[in-house]
Each structure stands twice: as C-alpha cells, then as structure tokens.
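Ticket #4471: structure output looks truncated?

Reporter: J.K.
Steps to reproduce: submitted the chain below (603 residues) through the standard prediction queue, then opened the result file.
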Amino acid sequence: GLIDIREAILRQLDDKDLTVVQAALNVDGLQNVLGFSKLLEALQNVLRRCVGKLLSGSTDNVSVTGEVAITCLKKAISYFHDHSDYLKNIAAMIFPLLLVMPQTQGLNLKALVLVNKINWPVYQNIAVSSSDEATSIPGSLSSINLKVINSLAGNFMAHPEDNISWFVESCNDSELSKTLFFFVLLQSLLLIKPKGDEFSALFGSVFPILKAEWESLVNAGDVLLDEFNSEVLDWDCSAFFDQLLYANLRSLNAKVMVCIFWKLIMSADSSGNLLDDSKIKDLFVFFASSKFKHVFSKHLHFLAAHCSVSPARLLSKFFTDEGVPAAVQVESLQCYAFLCRMSQDRWQTELLVEFPSLLVPLAGDNQSVRVASMNCTDELRALWRRIDCSGKINGNNATWFDFLGELLLLLDQQKTLILSDKKFLPSLFASTLGSSCHNILVPQNMENRFDQPTKERIIEFILGSALEFSNYGKLMILSLLKGIGNAIMHPKVAPMLSRFMKQYYDRSRKSSQKFSNTETRIMCLLLEVESCAMSSSSGGDDLQYPLLKALQLDGMTSDDPAYIEPCISVLNKLNSQFYTGLPNEVQVLLAIQLFISRVCCHS
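Returned output as attached by the reporter:
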C-alpha cells in the first residue's frame, strides 16, 4: 500500500549508503507519496548529513556526497519555491551554504547559483549566474564570501527588526549558520550607520540574542580565548576567512561576537547614538561578569570613558549598590583606576570628588574587591599629585583638594594594615577624625594627624557624598565612621534619622511603608550613636526625642526586627549617667516606656 511505499522511501532517504539516498531522491512524485511536511523534513536531514560529512572529512566519496547534497537542494527548491508556507524553511536550508568553505566549495558555489530561485527578501542581489562566474572572481573564495556577506548585510539592515527573528530561527541547529549570521551582523555595523530610533531598535533586537548566544558558548566549555589579541577588534569579517578551514567554529564565532559587541558600542558613539544609562549598565555588567572578561577589557574602558553620564558616577554605582557581584565590582574599580591614569581634564575633578565612594568597597568583606579599591586610591593619589603640580585646582575646589591629598597619603601609608585587617580602617578613622583616646590597633599620634577644622571638613566631605549613595552605601560609610562618635550626626545626616523615626512612629498604620533590613541597620546605628551621646556630658535635649520614640513599643507584639531592634539598640547603650541627666518629667516618661517595653517583650 501507499503507507508501505512511504516508509520504504523514508528508510532509503535515511540509508547510510548515499547512492541509495540518491536513487530515492530521484523517485518521481515524492511530494505526493510523502507529503510536503515529511518530504521537507527528510530533505533537511539528508542535506545536513552531507554537509556534516564534507566539513568533517569523514566521507569516503566526496564526489557522491556533493552530488547528493546538490540534488537534495535542487529538489527542495523545485518542490517548495512557490509554497509560501514553506519558503522560510527552504531559505534556512540554503543559508549556511552561502558561506563558501574550502571543504564544501562545489556545493557552496552551486547554492549561490540556485539561490536566485528563492524569492526571499534577505537573498536579493546575492546570486551569481553560474559556478564558473563565481570561481572567476579575483581573490577566489574570500572575494565571493565578502560580496555575499555585504549583500546580505545590506538586505538585513533594510528591515532589521523583521529579519532578525528569521536569522535566529535559521541558526538554531547549525554552527555554520551562526558563523555566517555573525559575519552579516559584523558587516552590517561596519557598512551602515543607523541613527536615532533605528539604532535603538537594532540594539534592542541584537543585544539580547548575542548575550544569550555568548552565555551558551561559555557554558558549553569548549571555547578557548586565552590568547585573544585586541587587534582583532578592528577587523572586518574578511580577516576571519582564513580561519574557516582550520578553526573550531564555536571559537571562531566567539571571536566574531567579541568584535560585534565592540562595533556595537563604537557605532553608538561615532553616530551620536549615545547609549542610555540602562543600556550602559547592562553592557558593563555583562562584560564584567563574563568568564572571558579579559577579552572585554577594551569594551569596559570604552564604556566608562564614553558614557553620557559622569564616568566616575557610573562606575561608583557598581561598588556602592548592594548585591553587585564581586567580579563586576572589581572590573568597575579597575576601570576607575584606568580613568585616573588617562589625561582627560574633564574627568579629573569628578574622579577626585567621588573618592568617598571608594571607601565602600574598601570596607567590604571581599578581599579581591578591597585590593582593587586600594589600587584605585593609589591611582587617585597619583592623579591628585599630577593636578597639584599643574596648579589647576583653585577657588572653591581648593577647600577640599588639600585635605583630600592628605587623606589619600594617609591611606597609602597604612595600606598594608588596611588590607590585612578589615577592622583597621574603622579604627584608623576613629583615631584620626574622632575625639576619643588612642586605639591600640592604630600607630601612635594618629589622633594629631589633622587639626579640628580639617577633621570637620573631611567628615562633611565623606558624609555629604555618602548621602548620595544607595542605602547600602550609606550604611557602609556610617559603619566605617561610627567610631568618631556624635560627630557622625552631621546636619546632613540628622534629618535622615528624623525621617526614619517618623516612619517608625507611624509603624502601626497599615499604609506605612515597611523598613528594609538595611534601613533598620542604619536607624539602629544612628540611635546607638545618639544613645552614647546622651550618656556623655555632651548630650542635649535635642537627642531625647528619637531615643524615647524608639522605646515606644505601644503594646505591639510584632516580631519584625524593624520594630524590635531599634528599641534594643537604645536599651543596650543606656546607663545611669544618661538617666540622671534627663529632666524629671522625661525620667518619668522613660521609666514608663521601659516598663511597657518589658511587658511587651514578655507577653
């Protein structure tokens, strides 16, 4: 019956003996016997097998393998060229064959002749009239490939958003298709300069695809880029053609993608299509967190140097925000150091002003990040010295410039201790900026390093900058300066505690915004500082309100740390000196609150 004939033909098309396959391909009326869907699937499998054998050199008879592949291609075009439902499948079948490879040259040249029979938008004006014409082109295979890729690039860029999905779908199961697609993308960015909305649309379409493919290549574990040469970044696709014969296609594709990423960010800069902050951050995090981030070092430097916002402010976000991977923090600090070494006058003041942000990673737990941060302060000091010698700082900038130089010198002198013991840096600031007695961790006479006016200017400089950081960055700086005592309650910091206490006082309202863990820790730290101040002779009436409010649990039984920990922070710091220093009416209120708190804690 018909079913038996169909099964027999399908077995023949799948036979290991290609002469059997060739005979099956020449059966008249195949589409009627197998149906279009089964026939298309069978032809795709046969062509894939033949191309694989030719590329790997595993075929015993190159001539027969090539003939079967060409027959398969002709049959596919003959059966399906006027069936619009299958046209994109036929276009995908022939796509990888448009890249002429030394191992498949005869098949490739035949495909370039046949492609004009496929009415597919991306294939306009890429065909040659005959194989003889193709081989007569000066420069042989490389010239053919460049001509074809340039034509494909022009067709692709005519409607990139419409064409990109077909390209991606066509590359799903073929590494060679991916190679040709990446060549097309690379040439597209070289030949055509999209502007404005066109570039944004192109970036939005291409970047997610490249990112996913890069991560897939890296996760596969068979890509080697240890000896990557940055000179490759300036290549066009023709420079890679010599590698088609010998290179592992996956490694070749990785190199071409590195170039595409480079051309993508270069195109944004050269055509005035400045990337917005979100795109820059996405690119930076992607490059910096890659397993092969060394191939992206030039990309990272370029992003930092050519962003539309302040380079220093952009980079500081990566090491003052919470949850940023250590690898990204290290790369951002290295980029910061790179900018310090450059001679761009417009960045110099910004880089110096952002110094307090470097204290956040320097005070962190990760040793690699701490080392990178210290290296950054070294480069910042070198920058300070160059500016100091040039005499370019004057006017308002001079007020902080001098003490910043002294502060950078201090860190340089103590960097061995800073890096060897995380506790040293807070102790160093407590001794040099605070009014307390000498700390045993710190060398002698550090408390006399700065006079009082200089201490106040340094504290104002660091805290003023810290208030621009994320809550995590604020917490790290406040924790670092906790040892300076009540001086931390700078006029710029005190309102922050007031806002927290207002929110804390309104905590019983359902509409009240809940505290994050970081906000709770900031509030507890500031309450502890105020409690210590109240317990000293310098305590004042203005400090009483937030402390008493922190003790007002008002019968609440919530186990939310944001409700309980501020109260505990105050209780841990109270003593008799604090209590006797309060007015009588305040002593009564405090006693009542302590009693209520005790009842609440035991209820």
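Triage note (M.O.): checked the attachment and the full token line is present. The first helix runs from residue 2 to 13.
Status: closed, working as intended.
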